[in-house]
Amino acid sequence: MFESETLKLSGGRKVQVYRAGKGPAVVWLHGPHGIRKNDPVIAALAERYAVIAPVSPGFNDIEEIDDIRDVHDLALHYDDIFEALGLDGITLVGHSYGGMIAAELAAHVPKRVKRLVLISPFGLWRDDHPVADLFARPYMTIDTILWKDGKPSGPMADPANFPNDPMEKAVGIVQGMTTVAKYIWPIPDKGLRRRLHRVSADTLVIFGEKDAFVPALYAEEFSKAIRGARNVVVPDAAHMVPYEKTDEVMRLIAQQLDGTTRAA
Amino acid sequence: MKFHWFHLMPYPYLPEDFKEKYKSVWVDPPAAELYDPVKGHQVYNDYLDQLEFAEQMGFDGICVNEHHQNGYGLMPSPNLMAAALARRTSKAKLVVLGNSVALYDPPTRVAEEMAMLDVMSGGRLVAGFPVGTAMDTAYCYGANPATLREKYREGVELILRAWKERRPFSFNGKYTQLRYVNPWPTPIQNPHPPIWIPGGSSIETWEWVIKNDFLFAYLTYFGYMAGTTVIDHFWETVDRLGADFNPNRAAFLQFVGVADTDAEAERLYSEPAQYFYNRCFHLDPAFVAPPGYSSIASMRKGVQSTVRESAQKVQGKHLSWKDIIDSGCVVAGSPQTVIDRLNDMADRMKVGHVMLLLHFGNMSHETTLYNTQRFAQDVMPKLRHRFSEYEDRWWPKDTLPQLQRPAPIGVAAE
User: One digit per residue, pLDDT tens: chain A, 264 residues?
Assistant: First the structure.
C-alpha cells in the first residue's frame, strides 16, 4: 500500500498523488489501468527511488475531465501538478497513456522534464502500421490486446486490486477508458510529431516486441523524433512490458537514470 | 392513435452466409464487395414508392432515419429522402428521425436543412434529433464518445435558438463558435417543427425530453412486449417530474405483417422477418458500447443502450418465425390478430404514436404494398379511436391549409 495525498492545484482542481520509496525522485505516469492498490511497477521503482505517482484526471471521477478538453489542456494540467509539488527538471517515466502524457508534457514545457522514459507510449501514427483500435472491443476485454498472454498476470490479476462491488469495478474501468478515449479518439495522433522536436530531456523509449496495440516499430518513430533519444525493444513482452518484464525494465530505467541522477 | 409508415431501407441482397462470413452489418462490412449500386437504384426507387403509397393509404406520417455504413439502413442522409418525398406527397407529415446533431459542424446546417424541408413541404416536418448509435457516431463518424452527448445537447440548443430568436446572434459554445447565427430559410411551423427524440433508455435523456416538452420515440426492434418496461420507466419519469400524462408524448416502433389468416401471414412474412433478424441485425459487440457513450449514472442504474441490449439478444442465435412471433418482435397474422395485439400494446404502453415497419428485411415490393394496404384498410380504422381524447402537441398543425402545392409540371404537349 502506498501513501496518498490530495493536492490542490492553482486552478482549483484536486489531484490524488501516490508516494512510495526513498531516493532520487521519479515521477510515474500510469497507463490505462490507473494505479492499482499493489501496483508492482510502482513497488519496484520504490526500491530505488522516491516515486511520485499522480492519478490522471477522470480515472477517479469522470467529471474531472469536463474542462480538460484536449491533449494541450492535459499537458498543462500535469505542468500545474509539478508546479504545485515544487518539482522542476524532473525525471519522468510514463507507460502507455502515461507515456503519451509524458511526451506531451516534455514537448509542451521542455524545461520541466530533465530525464524521460517512455514505455509503450502512443501519440504517433503511421498509415502502414496503424495503432490497433483499443476501443473496438468491449472495454471489459481490453486486456486481451494489452498483455502478451491475453490476460493480466501477477499482482495485476489480484482481485484485491479491485472494489468488491462488480459495478464499482466496472465504473472504475470505464472511467479510465473514457478518459483515454477522450484524448486519442478516433486515432491517437493529436499532433505530437509536430511537437517532439521541442523535447530537451535525455530520453529512453521502451517497447515490448509483441505489443499488439502499439506496434514495436513505434519505438523508433519516437526515438527518431526526439533529439538524442535511444530505444530498446524488449523481447517476449507486449504493451504491458513494465508489468511483464519488470526486472528488465527496472534495469533499463536504472541504466538511463543512475549516471545522471547521482550527478544531479 | 396516429400511424406512421417507417422505412429502414435495408439492403435486400446480403448473401445467405452473411452472418458466418462477415463480423458486422454495420461499420465495416465491405461496401464495394457487398453493395451493388445498380440493384441499389431499383431498391431506392421502390422504397420511395412505398413511402409515397403509404400517404395514399392514409398513414399520418412517413418516417425516414439516419444510419451510416450500415447494411440494413441505406439512409446516411435522411434529408435527401425527405426532400424527394416532400415533392411527391402533400398530406402525410414527414417524420425525419435523423439528424444526429453532433455529427454536423456547425449544427446550424441541420437547422437550415430541416427548415428547407418544412418550407418545401408546406409545414409538414417533424424534426427528429437522435444522439445517434455508437456505431453511427463514434465509429463511422469519428465522434468522441466522451463528449458526444454534451456536444449533441449543445447542438440541439443552438438549433432551437436559431429557430426561435428574432435577430441574428452570436453563439460561443464549448463545441461550436459562430459569430453570426441567422439561418435562412426559417421553418413554416412557428417557432419550429415538433421535436422528436428517438432514443433508448437513458434516464438523463428522458428528463431532458420531458423538461423541454419533446416527444420520446422508443426505437427497438424487439417489439412491444419487450419494450413495455422502458416505456413504463418513461411514464414514471413523466410523473416524477410533474408533467401531464399524455400518450402523444411517446412513439413506439413495431414490425407488423397483415394477411388473411395467421398461416398466410407466416407464408408472406416469415422469410423477410428472418432475413432481418438473422442477417441484417448482425452486430459486432466490439462496436456497440465505446467507453463514455453511456453515462456513468446510467451505468450505475443498470441501464444499457438499446442497441447493446439488442445485440446481446440476438448474438450467436438464430431466431425462428415462432421465436419472432412469440416474443412480439413482429406482430403478424389476420387483421383480427393484429388488432388484438395492437390493442394490447396500446393498453400496456399507452403510446399515442405508432411507427410501423410494414417493410422489413428483404420483403418484396408487392408484398410491402399489400401489407401496407391491408394494414390501412383492415387494422388502422379499428384502432384510430384510441387516445383520441388527448390533445397532440407533438404533431404538425395544418399550418397552411390554403397552401396549394403545385403539381409537377409535365412535358409540354407537342
Answer: 699 999 999 999 999 999 999 999 999 999 999 999 889 999 999 999 999 999 999 999 999 999 999 999 999 999 999 999 999 999 999 999 999 999 999 999 999 999 999 999 999 999 999 999 999 988 778 999 999 999 998 888 888 888 888 888 899 999 999 999 999 999 999 999 999 999 999 999 999 999 999 999 999 999 999 999 999 999 999 999 999 999 999 999 999 987 644 433
Burial class (CB in 10 A: 0-12, 13-18, 19+), B16: exposed
CA distance A12 to A5: 16
Q: Look at A185 and B139 and tell me if their CB atoms are within 8 Å.
A: no
pTM: 0.94
Domain locations along chain B: 2-383
Between A69, A135, A171, which is nearest B290 by CB? A135
Q: Cell triple for residue B276?
A: 432481418
Q: Is the CB of A135 less than 8 angstroms away from the CB of B291?
A: yes
User: Cα(A247)–Cα(B392) distance, rounded to whole angstroms?
Assistant: 70
Q: Which has the closest alpha carbon to B220: B246, B247, B198?
A: B198
How many degrees, rounded to 5, is the angle at CA B81 between CA B77 and CA B82?
110
The CATH architecture to which A3-263 belongs is 3-Layer(aba) Sandwich (3.40)
Judging contacts by C-beta atoms under 8 Å, the chain B residues touching residue A182 are 144, 146-147, 292
B110 Cβ contact list (under 8 Å, min separation 6)? B99, B101, B104, B129, B155, B159
Asked if the Cβ–Cβ distance from B289 to A138 is below 8 Å, we say: yes
A141: which chain B residues are within 8 Å (Cβ-Cβ)?
none
Q: Which residues of B touch A134 (CB under 8 A)?
A: none
Between 3.20.20.30, 3.40.50.11690, 1.20.120.450, 3.40.50.1950, what CATH number should domain B2-383 receive? 3.20.20.30
